[in-house]
Amino acid sequence: MTTTWRLRFELSDSPGALARVTVRLAAADCNVLALHVMPVPGGVLDEIVVRAGEGVLPADLVDAVRCEGGKRVRITLADMRDLVDAPTAVLRAARMALADPEQTADALRQVLAADSVTPGEAADGQVQVGEWVVRRGWAPFTQVELTRAQALLDLVEAPAPSMRAMLSDDGVALVLRPGSAVDEDAVAGLHSRCSMRTMFNRYHSGMRTVPRRWLHRLLEPPRGTTVLGQCGDQVVALGQLIHTGTPDCAEVSLLVEDAWQRRGVGAALLGALAADARAAGFTELVAWCLPSETALVRTAARAGLATTTRREDGLLRVSIKPRGRAATTPAMDDVVEKTR
Question: Any stretches that span the bilayer, and where are they (predicted)?
């Protein structure tokens, strides 16, 4: 009877080192089914999934790897999920957790090949990932794995923007709601009604219309959220909150069509994005404006949000604190410029 094993070991990052290990395993009647290489300080960490022939013991596999220079060799039984490459495994696990948040622990366990994942605070010798304690006896976790697991949690736990109602300064009712792919035509219409000045302030270029291929990324950014301002059947404003890669910082941008500027829409939209940022744990919002434009600072002030500014790379960097005092009736002065 054949058995499938998962081996993990450190190996010098030199030509032919891994090839020699696989040749040695083949000589031991093993078929290599999957391979994954992770960089670690001083070399690489190799993980392979092998199907061992009848009578081949785990100790035989460990000895084969050690004979070719493998260090800190760990072994455990494998299943079919271990034959999937790591990015695919993470995407599948994320999809499972997004469909049912109660399966988040199981998704983490699959991604990390962990023995257990439980809520709580990690004790000495245990590993904390978000609000979860993860344990694995057969091999220590690598920083690559833990970063991958945290990225999964960031995706699963990111709060979706909720639907909000608002009144413009002149009493017109609007709805602020999440954007989606079905809004492409409405967002294309929004851009077509904006003046050249509004478009230039938003995109920092002289284009008259937004390319169709941009619409999907505007509505469903891969590392953020989009909120639309809608009146009747028309989308009249668009705001985005994009994670910059810095843990506590996100970029923010707004587009408000000309007829709806100076009517409180921009301030309400910025306030909604700030609320989403607070819920996601961000402590700073950043926007990049043309040096001559101060509309964003005024709009943030009317939304009750404190700002600081500085010149950087020929643009005005506006830093916004997402926590602020309660705003009075907001008013929009101008369209707020997009991030770079």
Answer: none
